[in-house]
């Protein structure tokens, strides 16, 4: 049985017309075709199994972390509160597009409606911007814990924690809202998105001309990536100097352990997203661009629970405590 339904050129255009997809000389676009790796069937099969593994680990891992932090009173601290928020963002981000990409792996040139495309794209944008800011907030939390341990509870009060999360969500919402308001509506009949899912850069390439939305995307990418990343770098320089002043080896090891997990997540997330949004733009999306986009859209949500659970004794302790409680019940 064939996995992929290959169509002749005539059959392909006929099916497009039946589905309401405009041809190149029509200005109204109601659906988009997602290219993905449709031209590479073997690579698409490999992609399916890889993404399925990533999705299951991310779904179960982030879901488990959220449950453990909510259920265990010992984890009701600012650090784990921010980890819970990060896992919630990653949980939603994972479910925003990956299930649909998995299904599309068995369809040659799958289609997506215009409205669904916009929801998927702007939901992804909102979550990515939120994660950028939350990672910077988590660096500030580590700075307060290591540099001002005696005043940590006063500095990182619950009022401040909720304010920082609300600020992250608010900035993400405002950025997304401006992009929605500047959304181009004329695609000159172009309906083929060279990506696995609806992604802002790929969609803007279909617009009839360079739009205000594209200019805003470049400007907002700069201001939403560099200031948080620069803040994280400066923060960890200060943390590194503080760790050097710790006299005991055990104290230095513990301080470094609490920061290394966060640094690993920051490196993967900011590294991939800066490659995608800050490098010189090309006229078309390459296969390498699509793979890099998957790195921050799929790999980062998978790595977060692995890094924070496998390297954290408190999380593992809460897990075994929950298991024992279920067994005794």
Helices and strands, with pairings:
Elements: H1 9-18, E1 31-34, H2 41-71, H3 78-104, E2 111-113, H4 114-147, H5 152-155, H6 158-181, E3 192-193, H7 200-204, H8 212-244, H9 249-278, H10 287-310, H11 313-328
Parallel strand pairs: 1-3
Antiparallel strand pairs: 1-2
Helix pairs in contact: 2-3, 2-10, 2-11, 3-4, 3-10, 4-6, 4-8, 4-9, 8-9, 9-10
DSSP summary: helix tally: 11
* DSSP helix fraction: over 70%
Morphology: globular
Beta content: under 5%
**Classification by helices and strands:** mainly alpha
Distance between the termini: 47 Å
Strand order of the largest sheet: 2-1-3
Mean pLDDT: 79
Order of H and E elements: HEHHEHHHEHHHHH
Number of strands: 3
The largest sheet, given as strand count, sense and whether it forms a barrel, is:
3 strands, mixed
Unreliable runs: 1-14, 16-26
Please give the radius of gyration in angstroms. Answer: 22 Å
Verbal overview:
It is a single chain. The protein is mainly α. Helix content is 72%, strand content 3%. It has 11 helices and 3 strands; from the N terminus they run αβααβαααβααααα. Helix 2 runs antiparallel to helix 3, helix 2 crosses helix 11 and helix 8 packs antiparallel against helix 9. The N and C termini lie far apart (47 Å).
């Amino acid at each position: 049985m064939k996995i992929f339904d290959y169509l002749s050129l005539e059959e392909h255009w006929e099916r497009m017309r039946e589905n309401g997809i405009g041809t190149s000389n029509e200005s109204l676009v109601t659906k988009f075709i997602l290219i993905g790796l449709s031209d590479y069937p073997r690579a698409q099969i490999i992609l399916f199994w890889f993404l399925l593994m990533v999705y299951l680990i991310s779904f179960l891992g982030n879901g488990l972390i959220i449950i453990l932090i909510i259920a265990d009173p010992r984890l009701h601290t600012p650090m784990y509160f921010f980890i819970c928020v990060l896992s919630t963002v990653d949980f939603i981000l994972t479910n925003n597009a990956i299930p649909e990409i998995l299904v599309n792996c068995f369809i040659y040139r799958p289609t997506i409606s215009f409205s669904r495309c916009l929801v998927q794209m702007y939901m992804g944008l909102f979550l990515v911007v939120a994660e950028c800011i939350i990672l910077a907030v988590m660096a500030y939390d580590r700075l307060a814990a290591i540099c001002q341990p005696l005043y940590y509870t006063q500095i990182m009060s619950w009022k401040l924690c909720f304010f920082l999360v609300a600020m992250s969500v608010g900035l993400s919402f405002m950025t997304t809202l401006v992009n929605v308001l500047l959304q181009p509506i004329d695609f000159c009949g172009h309906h083929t998105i060279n990506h696995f899912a609806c992604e802002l850069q790929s969609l803007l390439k279909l617009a009839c001309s360079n739009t205000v939305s594209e200019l805003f995307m470049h400007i907002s990418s700069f201001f939403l990536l560099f200031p948080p990343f620069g803040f994280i770098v400066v923060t960890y320089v200060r943390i590194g100097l503080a760790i050097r002043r710790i006299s005991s080896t055990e104290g230095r090891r513990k301080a470094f352990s609490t920061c290394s997990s966060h640094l690993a997540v920051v490196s993967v997330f900011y590294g991939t997203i800066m490659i995608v949004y800050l490098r010189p733009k090309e006229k078309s999306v390459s296969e390498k661009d699509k793979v890099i986009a998957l790195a921050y859209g799929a790999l980062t949500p998978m790595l977060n629970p692995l890094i924070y659970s496998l390297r954290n004794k408190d999380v593992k302790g809460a897990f075994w405590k929950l298991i024992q409680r279920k067994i005794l019940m």
